[in-house]
Amino acid sequence: MRLAHLLARQWAMRPGRALATVASVAVAVGAVVATWVAADASRSGYRRLTEAIEGAPSIEITSTEEGRFSIEELPSLGDIPGLRAIIPLFYRPTLLRVGEKRVREIAMGVDCKTLVGQGLLELTEGEPCLAPDEMVLDAGLASSLKLDVGDEVLLFARRGIKRMQVTGLAESASLATFSAGGGVVVEIAALSDMSSSLGLVDRVRVVLKPDASRSDVLAAISKRMPDTLSAAVPAGRASMAEDVLHAADLGLDFVTGLTVAMSWFIVVNAMLMNVTERRRGLALVRLLGGTARQLRQTVITEAAILGLFGAVVGAGLGLLAARPIAGGIAGALNAPLTEFTYDPVIVLVAMLMGPAVAIAAAWWPAREAGRVELLEGIAQAPPPPARGVSMRYLLGAISLWCLAGLILLAVLFELMPPRAAVPAGTITMLAFVGITPVVLPWVSSGLVRLVPSCWWIEARIAHEQIMRQPVRTALTTGVLVVAVSNGIGLGHAIQDNVDNVLGWYDGWMQADWLVVQAGALGAMPPQAGPDAAEIDEIAREIPGVAKVEAIGVATGRADGVACVVVARDLPAGESSLPLDVIDLDESSAREALERGEAFVGTALSQKTGIEPGDEISVEIYGRTTKVKVAALVVDFMSGGVAVHVSRETGRTQFGLNAIEVLLVTAEQGQAASLQAPLEELANEHGMLARSFAEMQSMIDRVVQGIVGSLKSILMLGFVVGSLGVANTVTMNVLEKTRTLGLLRSVGMTSGQVTRLVVIQSILLGAAGGAIGTFGGITTALFIQISSQPLLGYPVQMSLRPGLIALNMAAAMLVTAVAAWLPARRASRLDLLQAISAE
Amino acid sequence: MTVLAAEHISKTFGAEAAAAAGVQAVRDVAFTVEQGTFLAITGASGSGKSTVLHMLGGITRPTAGRVVLEGVDLAGLDDEQLALLRRRRIGFVFQRYNLLPELSLAENVALPLELDGKPRTACRSAALEALEQVGMSHRADHRPDSVSGGEQQRAAIARALVTKPAILLADEPTGALDSANSENVIALLSKLVLEDRQTVVLVTHDSTVADAATRVITMRDGQIASDETQAAATGVPSS
């Protein structure tokens, strides 16, 4: 490289400029690494959160006919990639006798020792059960029965009463993966033998590795199933279902995409400034016989070298920040980090990304360097840059919008997957930045009028300097446009979704107390389920109880898709139906439920294609019933894959007698007094009593955890944007050294120069904020629209002026603060040095 | 031997946008330059003399007519070929020296050779030789900002000479210098013409500088007003 030594000399002579360029790449790479790690931490936090509620991701194998099947029928599955464990399960309804107390429970037979060894069953105390007379109890159940390790219990089985010893207590959440509502764990061979069913299993739960694709594994397993067995994704009771997490995941993808876009703007702007500042020198080299190709090579080589330095620094900083960020997000999600490892792919990508982004970002400046006018090399002053933008440029920005719009439409009509909305969102952002030079003159001249008249001259010159290089200024503003769009767009999307979820909970759970089954949702045959049909009647007899609503829930299939069936009491005179019914009024909805019709969750409708007026085949407990769909409902039961019927219909049509949840409303002022009798009732039936406040705080914790994690990443984006802006403003001032020196030489005071630089930055901040607001609202719309195919219904978007004002203020504050130091530096310029600066 | 020929060249600025609104800076200028000529182009400010020089050096292209350097029509060359021609056959000297501040004087002088891919050591020795020629070898490793204006201009002349160009084009080379330094620079150029038969085309508005030339073209309103050969060049202008 013939001009390498020229580059080296330039860096040595202007280290500030080279450092600012390295810093811009470092900020960009660091941002991407940190965001990547933070997004990974969030995803893994979501996964742990889901696992805590639903159990580890798994696939369930059951008999296609009703009842149990021989384990011999199960083909070999061990070689399918992505499998963590294959767990045969045997369930047996039973009765426990502890002293004088009798408790109905479901005993589950598993290979306890292996499960403990694989980390799928966590014991809080004691040892796994091995012998036929040993058992492990759910720690919650044991506590309610006042049992401990070493105590003895009588278990009623088909072959009579058996004396069992409690060898260990299991963590309730870890039972979720394979529990069917039961809290008693017995060795599988012992339990099946007690039931005279040795060698038979109720189902086989296949637990997946965390990074495995459930759909791929399901497809692989299904291929091997004999006609007598079928594999399916089990439906869960948990409200935090996979589909809802997909929406949050999509949000993370958006944040990552926009951070990459923002990083690119930061780097391209730095590169462009780096080249613009040296145009005169480059023109001189051209004049002395340097070819355009040589200049392009010089700029690209410089970009690669500075990019590599930046990548090393940025990757280091990003990785340093990664652990606290991941820890913070895990804390916000209340899902502590068990281990944290640096993904070598991230480091590798970061190291490649620095030079690659720098080279890509340098392409345009390099092209400009190659086209530099020869006369610039000998001109007294650089020629004024072209004002305004060309029609071709404008058409380019409009084409980007159209392209993004087309992708979004394709997502909406499910011609493309929802993830395609992420590049579409990034393209839109590019279009917004692209349109910035067009609208910037109006925005800036409008804003200049708001500056106090005593600073008129500073404001006027600041505005003129912005106007001198509209495209370059647009790139500086672009960083802010993306940061503000990010903040406003994702802020709106997050808040809208949270309001939506919390609003649904508020409507769905109107009660003072909840009595719920312990453990995960079961799919037990009706004859094996806990006989709790009378529990609501008992609850109604408790003094101080005003109203009791019983909800029965069971897993099943609707038109072949795994779902939950919810059968709920609808007490007469209820002011509002606890369901968010779409396009059906309250009384018609009530009448439809009373007629035995069903409401179907939007996501289930999306998956099955079922519409109001259709009939849907619902299979639970091995029995299939057809029911008419009266309307669709927005719900968060298993992410909207639910069929809702009246409790009467549940009992008569589906045989759903068991009660999963009791909603108990107290008489005025009696809520606290219900605690003791409800806890006693719950203990007797193997259930848990929770106050509404406790439940609400649990839901709030989960929701706020997810919100907190997304906000952390948003904040990270804003910090990166701020660093980018600070860097850009610093370079901007460096570039204007000569102009500022000239202004000082004609009598501008140092205070005026400081104000000029700060006002200019605030103008950029305000312009970026204003344009970013439109970008943010568009981003929010993108997220809402692209989430629709996942959720099955449009999330209502509300405009939040507070959020917009906060982002605008932050943008202006960041630019003002970022400008302060360069402004001070500019005000202290040595005049002779400044006016002779090249 | 004719080194350079300007064949009825004209230059209109802004003509691309609207012909009627274009400003015609140079109109139908024609002359030839023989080897070893010291040609001064003079004229008032705005007379078109610098534009002519830029066209001769391939910095801008004429809107009409053609420039032929050593038999090569510059109009037939693309930008890259023009760059190579400037690098190898034309030396430039400008009013404000235009040395790269990051490089030492020797490195500045060596730059055209470096651009041409010559070996580093060969570039260095050629640069030192050129600096020696202008009496600046003792300042070879100084940066431009640490030497005087006159010395910078001498280094700029060395840079123009380092490739042994067919022609040296100088645009107001004494414009930023005091009278003593001006005399030194003009004496240097005259010496190059007299001793090395270097062809020099110089643009100046200073008649005392023009007096040192062997031929003087005076321009007015973009056209040649007079073209006179001076019988005897003193080599040093009388000030």
Structure notes:
- The complex is a heterodimer of chains A (838) and B (239).
- Chain A is an alpha+beta fold and 838 residues long.
- Chain A folds into three domains: 4-49 and 242-502 and 700-835, no CATH class; 66-227, no CATH class; 519-685, no CATH class.
- In chain A, strands 3-4-9-6-8-7 form a six-stranded mixed β-barrel.
- By secondary structure, chain B is an alpha/beta fold.
- Chain B has one domain (36-64, 78-229): 3-Layer(aba) Sandwich (Rossmann fold).
- Chain B has helices at residues 49-56, 79-89, 105-115, 120-133, 149-161, 179-196, 207-210, and strands at 2-13, 23-34, 38-43, 64-69, 72-73, 90-93, 167-171, 199-203, 215-220, 223-229.
- The two termini of chain B are 32 Å apart.
- Classes of the chains: A alpha+beta (838), B alpha/beta (239).
- The A-B interface holds A 2-3, 5-6, 9-10, 12-13, 281, 284-294, 374-375, 377-378, 380, 838 and B 54, 59-60, 79-80, 83-88, 92, 94-96, 98, 100-103, 107, 111-112, 114-117, 159, 163, 171.
The CATH superfamily name of chain B is P-loop containing nucleotide triphosphate hydrolases
Q: How does the overall form of chain B come out from the CA principal axes? A: globular
Uncertain runs of chain B: 235-239
Radius of gyration of chain B: 17 Å
User: Helix count of chain A, per DSSP?
Assistant: 25
Provide mean pLDDT of chain B, rounded. Answer: 86
Count of DSSP H/I helices of chain B: 7
Strand order of the largest sheet of chain B: 6-7-8-3-9-10
> Which runs of chain A of at least 5 residues are low in confidence (pLDDT < 50)?
236-241, 519-531
- CATH architecture assignment of chain B: 3-Layer(aba) Sandwich
Strand composition percent of chain B: 25-35%
